[in-house]
Inverse folding.
């Protein structure tokens, strides 16, 4: 079945809309996407807002969670890879694209994509924002848009391509499990040994080196004393060597 994309002019948050529909008992089908021209209350991870701009992509989709499926948290890697594979063919310099734990996609070391994963009534709602033609300023972090690297696709063309790729990635996730997905993610991400700083949202900060992932997608951080620390949630900043 081909993805179904509903385009709307404006809403508060496409993720909030789909979560509310599921909570109300609506049967939102898999491969359905809600894409908005504008969002007045777009959301990112840990309660942050996602600032939109005309021509950028803001949309959400639904994945049904079955008992035999891999851990829902690994869908963040599925979504990251879907964005990565959608963007990669159009880049003049593919090496500029890199994945960062837990679900960031970086372009030339700067953030140009945000993802938000929420669960409701046996479904995962995945929101994706991509700076196609403009990069609204974000305090304390570098941002970029695809147009900074060359001609960017139109919003509608990008939506169609991303929806198709997401369908492929979800099918792979279901059929082969999370391990191949996580392995592909690691191949496109910062290498083992990369210095990282992790902020857990409660004001705590840990610094160490990237030491791979656990099967459930948790980050393994190698500390200066040689011990290993497992991080299940938090913001990661790449540090200079």
């Amino acid at each position: 079945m081909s993805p179904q994309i509903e385009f709307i002019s404006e809403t508060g948050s496409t993720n909030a809309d789909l979560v509310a529909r599921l909570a109300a008992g609506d049967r939102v089908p898999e491969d359905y996407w809600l894409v908005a021209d504008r969002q007045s209350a777009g959301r990112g991870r840990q309660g942050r807002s996602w600032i939109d701009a005309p021509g950028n992509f803001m949309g959400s989709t639904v994945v049904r969670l079955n008992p035999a499926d891999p851990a829902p948290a690994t869908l963040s890697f599925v979504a990251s890879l879907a964005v990565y594979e959608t963007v990669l063919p159009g880049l003049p310099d593919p090496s500029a694209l890199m994945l960062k734990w837990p679900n960031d996609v970086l372009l030339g070391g700067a953030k140009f994509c945000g993802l938000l994963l929420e669960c409701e009534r046996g479904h995962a709602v995945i929101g994706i924002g991509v700076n196609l033609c403009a990069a609204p300023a974000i305090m304390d972090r570098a941002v970029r848009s695809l147009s900074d690297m060359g001609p960017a696709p139109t919003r509608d063309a990008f939506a169609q391509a991303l929806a198709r790729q997401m369908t492929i990635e979800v099918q792979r996730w279901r059929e082969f499990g999370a391990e191949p997905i996580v392995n592909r993610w690691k191949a496109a991400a910062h290498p083992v040994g990369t210095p990282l700083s992790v902020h857990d949202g409660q004001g705590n900060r840990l610094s160490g080196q990237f030491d791979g992932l656990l099967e459930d997608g948790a980050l393994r951080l190698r500390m200066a004393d040689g011990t290993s620390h497992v991080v299940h949630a938090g913001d990661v900043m790449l540090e200079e060597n």
